[in-house]
Specification:
globular, single chain, 2 helices, alpha+beta, 91 residues, 2 domains
């Protein structure tokens, strides 16, 4: 992740499952592609996955808090608190 722009590499060999279905592969594409977009509050679901090293999760969570930490929007505040709690748990 570069700052607040998550990137995903999409290929026919990408076996990363969806969040809610182990048999759905949202990043599997017939032609190679690179997806880059701005981070959004719901991306918290991807920040603390056990498949990442602890150091990488710390970087993800810290970046997330850096982007959304000063928000006044209630739904975003909830995501920031989730990120802070996850970071405290692995720190």
């Amino acid at each position: 992740m570069l700052h607040s722009r998550p990137a995903s590499v999409c290929t026919q060999y990408n076996n990363s499952p969806g969040l809610r279905s182990a048999s759905f592969f949202p990043l599997r594409t017939p032609a190679p592609a690179l997806a880059i977009r701005h981070m959004v509050p719901t991306d918290i679901a991807f920040m603390n996955l056990d498949s990442y090293s602890v150091e990488r999760r710390k970087r993800f969570l810290s970046s997330f808090i850096g982007v959304f930490g000063g928000t006044t929007v209630a739904s975003e505040q909830s995501a920031v608190e989730t990120a802070r709690a996850a970071l405290a748990k692995i720190a």
